[in-house]
Amino acid sequence: MGKRKSILLISLALIMNCNIFLSETLANPLPIPIEYDMGGIFTNSTSSFNLTNANVIFDIDSTDFSNNIGISFEGNYTIFNPNNITEIMIVAPFSVNQSVINSNCIVEVNNSPIIFDVGYSWEFGIEDWVMDYSWFEVRTYIVCNITIPENSSQTIRYEFNGLMPNPLYADDKFSIFYDLETSKAWSGNITERVEFNVKGKIPNSYSEWTEGDYDDRCIVLNTANGRTYTWEWDNEKINTRRVGIIYSGKMLRSEIILIIILSISISVPSVIAVIIFVVIKKKRKKRI
User: Residue 15 has what pLDDT?
Assistant: First the structure.
């Protein structure tokens, strides 16, 4: 019976310590990150307006990557109107929630701020437009109406700043993509440049998804503080669907291993204490 009691006490000590540690660990769950997708303004696919030029810049601050990653987006788009229909609805898809966009986003036309709305596709009656882009069903959209005189151009600018905590917590992978498939909503060719400026932790890889033959256009350059990834198209049809950067790792598995190590380190002293207690108790019985 004495041995059974000792084993029981040791087992209880292990279970209690593991439960205490795990309950403390899981009491404050870390936020689950999402895949960031941005950009690619579009309009009604039957429109005859031309998107002649686009210049997109992502500034990625990953200097404190284990805790958070900063994402700044700036997109400048020049639209030409070749006909006498002067008003056009412009839609920009973002994969962040409405409150974040409302507090962080700026939209300008020819350097003057304009009013914009934020919501889902069904709120603006643009479900048919979104159907053309397979992964846009659940997105937050920035929608605005602008006037472009006949045979003239206007430049619309979007600026957005965001912060993602614990990027690799949920899935061992965190990616930031820019959508180019929306280019097919516009008439004519496009000159476009997409640039990712990374400061701090370097991504594990970059991604380019192109219809048909694989065409790696990415230019990668090392900088003093990180790396830049650039894609360019010169007055042409864009067949690339999306480009972006990818971080990957084994953060979640590492956390599980850490939990096991810590739970063992916490449990061992308790087990030793129980063993000492049992030994002392036995010695007292022998003396008696």
Answer: 41
